[in-house]
């Protein structure tokens, strides 16, 4: 189920800071037309850190209601009880999977990491995707922890953004006998990760160019390396522009520029600076995204 391209959806806001529900629905329709295999809501790209619990739940409900592809709900927290509450809600709402970031700020030891994820997994039936993103959490999930968690029945995948291809290769090797999928969590490394056995990407850039990301991933999975490499380099400048500042600052601005629902950012995030906006605008123009 968790293969191919799954956009990490942005959360558009109205001027009064409320969630732009219609814009959120329209954005889902847009990426579906691009051929994505699923959507992820309430992750880092969706500004989950500044969503209230009620907004978090509402967005999961809306995504499940209006999406025609599998929905993965971001339900992670550095508070195990809260992560379990949100994951139970996602399961009850009909989400197809849950994405759980490793606990940030706490920096748990290996036993704590294992018990955190197992506590959630053993109290729900919904498939769970681990999320390793050291730049956000301050901690790189160790290989031995990932390998042990891959043996838990409903922990079925990991979205990895550690940036270490050697580690990810060993991760794929170590979990080869499990029902466990490795997914890229970094757009620039999607093609290299697919080349060593990854099965897809949870993507920021797919909010803007879902069709191109799908073309890249499909070509790589069909061993059409020439096409995959061609698309990789075609979209590389836009991917770089998406990460000139903290995600989702650039992607929300890109959404506004191409006519999607983006809206402002909730504090403490602030708007893209002028120099980086020029980089982003040029990349979008070169991709043919701007008229």
Polypeptide structure, described:
The protein has 291 residues and is of the alpha/beta class. 45% of the residues lie in helices and 12% in strands. It contains 12 helices and 8 strands. Helix 3 runs parallel beside helix 4. The protein is globular, with a radius of gyration of 18 Å. The mean pLDDT is 96.
Summary, kept brief:
Helices cover 45% and strands 12% of the residues.
Attribute tags:
single chain, two-stranded parallel ribbon, globular, 291 residues, 12 helices, alpha/beta, six-stranded parallel sheet, 8 strands
The end-to-end distance, rounded to whole angstroms, is 36 Å
| Portion of residues within helices | 40-55%
Order of helices and strands: EHEHEHEHEHHEHEHEHHHH
Mean pLDDT: 96
- State the strand order across the main sheet: 2-3-4-5-6-7
**Which descriptor suits the 3D outline?**
globular
Radius of gyration: 18 Å
β-sheet strand percentage: 5-15%
Secondary structural class: alpha/beta
The major pleated sheet works out as: 6 strands, parallel
List unreliable stretches of 5+ residues.
none
Number of helices: 12
How many strand elements?
Answer: 8
What's the layout of helices and strands?
Layout: E1 4-7, H1 21-33, E2 39-41, H2 53-66, E3 71-74, H3 80-93, E4 97-101, H4 110-121, E5 128-132, H5 134-137, H6 143-149, E6 155-160, H7 165-174, E7 181-184, H8 190-195, E8 200-203, H9 210-221, H10 225-241, H11 249-257, H12 274-286
Parallel strand pairs: 1-8, 2-3, 3-4, 4-5, 5-6, 6-7
